[in-house]
């Protein structure tokens, strides 16, 4: 006998898909408006009724934002600070996560790990002034290090790596490496790191998004136009009397495209890292 699917199941599935498609349209609409407005004139952006497509499209906004801002330099600064932040975060968070996952007999292990987790409840705004004063004391204001170092290690990153390592790196493998004469760092670098690549990829993408879009901290510690990152340059386009929204949209589009392309290229690794730790292997 051939089993036939109930019409109610098909209707329910169609309803779910229709609902999800509607949500996708809602969430994608701001990005659509950003893309189309980047190719409009100021008058077209505020035209009533709204013009859903630029007619005719213009590239003048991109030309203006290139000639009237330090956009090219800001893009390079964002690449440097984001790359440094992601690389340092992956190294330190995975190293700390490995220690918390496998050195469970160390004195005060549970208390220290609980303290690290408790810092996730502290709002970021509370630590802005103390962190800024530390940067002033260390003479790191208006340097790449001022943007990279303070956010390099986070409690969430340590928690993320600790959970993944505890679930996916067998103790027997580590003990066998010790018997073979590997140092503790060699065990981490040669054995643990290759196993946790999916988790590193997922954490790296999350850190990439946060660092690339970092505005408030970069605005506080960067003082000269040659050191500004993309979010700072785009924010400074806002004027007290008149804001060039066409240039603002063009700059926002140029700043967003690397993140979109990066996610599209590494979405498999990101999803794999998110789901791999859910099942104990």
Can you put this structure into words, describing what you see?
With 281 residues, the chain is mainly α. It has 14 helices and no strands. 70% of the residues lie in helices and 0% in strands. It has a single domain, classed as MetI-like fold.
Question: Features of this protein?
Answer:
281 residues, mainly alpha, MetI-like fold, 0% strand
Main pleated-sheet profile: none
Number of helices: 14
Oligomer: single chain
* Radius of gyration over all CA atoms, rounded: 24 Å
Low-confidence stretches: none
Return the structural class: mainly alpha
Secondary-structure element string:
HHHHHHHHHHHHHH
| Number of discrete domains | 1
Looking at CATH, the homologous superfamily is: MetI-like
Summary?
70% of the residues lie in helices and 0% in strands. The chain has 281 residues and is mostly helical.
Task: Note the topology.
Elements (H helix, E strand, L loop, with lengths): L6 H31 L4 H4 L14 H9 L2 H32 L6 H10 L9 H10 L6 H5 L6 H14 L2 H9 L4 H12 L1 H16 L3 H6 L8 H6 L9 H32 L5
């Amino acid at each position: 006998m051939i089993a036939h699917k109930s019409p109610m199941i098909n209707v329910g599935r169609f309803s779910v898909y229709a609902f999800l498609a509607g949500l996708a349209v809602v969430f994608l609409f701001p990005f659509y408006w950003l893309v189309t407005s980047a190719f409009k004139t100021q008058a077209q952006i505020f035209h009533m009724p709204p013009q859903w497509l630029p007619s005719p499209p213009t590239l003048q906004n991109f030309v203006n934002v290139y000639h009237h801002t330090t956009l090219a330099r800001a893009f390079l600064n964002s690449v440097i600070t984001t790359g440094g932040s992601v690389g340092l975060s992956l190294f330190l968070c995975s190293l700390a996560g490995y220690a918390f996952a496998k050195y469970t007999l160390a004195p005060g292990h549970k208390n220290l790990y609980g303290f690290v987790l408790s810092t996730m409840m502290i709002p970021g705004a509370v630590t802005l002034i103390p962190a800024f004063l530390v940067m002033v004391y260390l003479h790191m204001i208006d340097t790449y290090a001022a943007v990279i170092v303070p956010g390099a290690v986070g409690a969430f990153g340590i928690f993320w790596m600790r959970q993944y390592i505890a679930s996916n790196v067998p103790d027997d493998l580590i003990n066998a490496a010790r018997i073979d004469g590997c140092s503790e760092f060699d065990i981490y670098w040669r054995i643990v790191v290759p196993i946790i690549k999916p988790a590193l990829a997922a954490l790296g993408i999350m850190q990439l998004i946060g660092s690339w879009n970092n505005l408030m901290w970069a605005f506080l510690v960067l003082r000269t136009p040659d050191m500004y990152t993309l979010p700072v340059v785009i924010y400074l386009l806002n004027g007290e009397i008149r804001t060039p929204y066409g240039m603002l949209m063009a700059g926002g589009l140029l700043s967003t495209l690397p993140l979109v392309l990066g996610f599209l290229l590494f979405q498999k690794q990101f999803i794999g890292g998110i789901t791999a730790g859910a099942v104990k292997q």
